[in-house]
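ugh ok fine here u go
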Amino acid sequence: MRYLMLIIMVSILAFSCENDTKEATEKVVQEIKAGDNIRDIIRNPVNANDPIDTTNIPKMVFKDTRYLFGTVDEGDIVRHDFDFTNEGAVPLVITRAKSTCGCTIPEWPEEPIPPGGKGTISVRFDTKNKTGKQGKPITIIANTYPKDTYLQLAGMVTPKK
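structure:
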């Protein structure tokens, strides 16, 4: 009897979740259809069963992805702008930019970058309490494939005298 009740409860839960998922999916589809060209901005070009289609996605192309700042004194602020172009077929949307610590702060454009448009990721590295060889990675998350793009600041910080 216990097992029968368990099977019935699991079945009810499974079917109710399936209906909720279908309703949620249908709602999202309707919102997308009603949206202002949102289909052109938000895409999921990758499907586990199909080959990867990268023709209709944004392509973030940087002039350089690594900035060698040389040797600076501890306490200096290193700043660099990483310029890029969207060489893709649809608008580029950067959702986030991050680094591994609070000493490196990236800033990115909040508005979509149209095909052929240009943008800049500005990075500020505070060398306070950082000495020796430094390599600061920056990860850009966008509607590109792959979704992560990596930048880096690198150089040497000499101790304060």
